[in-house]
Structure to design on (121 residues):
């Protein structure tokens, strides 16, 4: 029986080498797949851990910027509110100036008419 096995191995050595090489290749592919899955799981775990902190920190910074912007808007609104009375006052003054200009023009025209009458022979 041992002789038969040895002779069978000699006759089919190419087949045996092929099967052994195929088992090694399948084992290497399995080990490579396992290593890839472990690496991927590690990356996902790191992303979940770091990503959560990063996201919370980033949202915190955005909320702070929004708060600062809202505070700036409140200051701007207060400044605009303080400008409204001044704008109203300027409008009233402009109206007074127009009325005064009209009155001055009428007075000058009247003066010129009176002067022309006095200078006529």
């Amino acid at each position: 029986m041992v002789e038969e096995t040895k002779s069978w191995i000699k006759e089919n050595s190419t087949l045996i080498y092929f099967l052994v090489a195929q088992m090694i290749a399948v084992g290497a592919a399995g080990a490579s797949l396992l290593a890839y899955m472990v690496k991927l799981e590690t990356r996902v775990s790191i992303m979940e851990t770091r990503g959560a902190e990063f996201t919370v920190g980033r949202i915190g910074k955005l909320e702070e910027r929004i708060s600062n912007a809202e505070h700036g808007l409140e200051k701007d609104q207060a400044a605009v509110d303080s400008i409204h009375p001044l704008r109203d006052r300027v409008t009233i003054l402009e109206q007074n100036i127009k009325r005064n200009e009209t009155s001055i023009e009428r007075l000058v025209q009247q003066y010129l008419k009176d002067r022309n009458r006095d200078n006529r022979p």
About this structure: The radius of gyration is 49 Å. Helices lie at 2-11, 13-119. The mean pLDDT is 86.
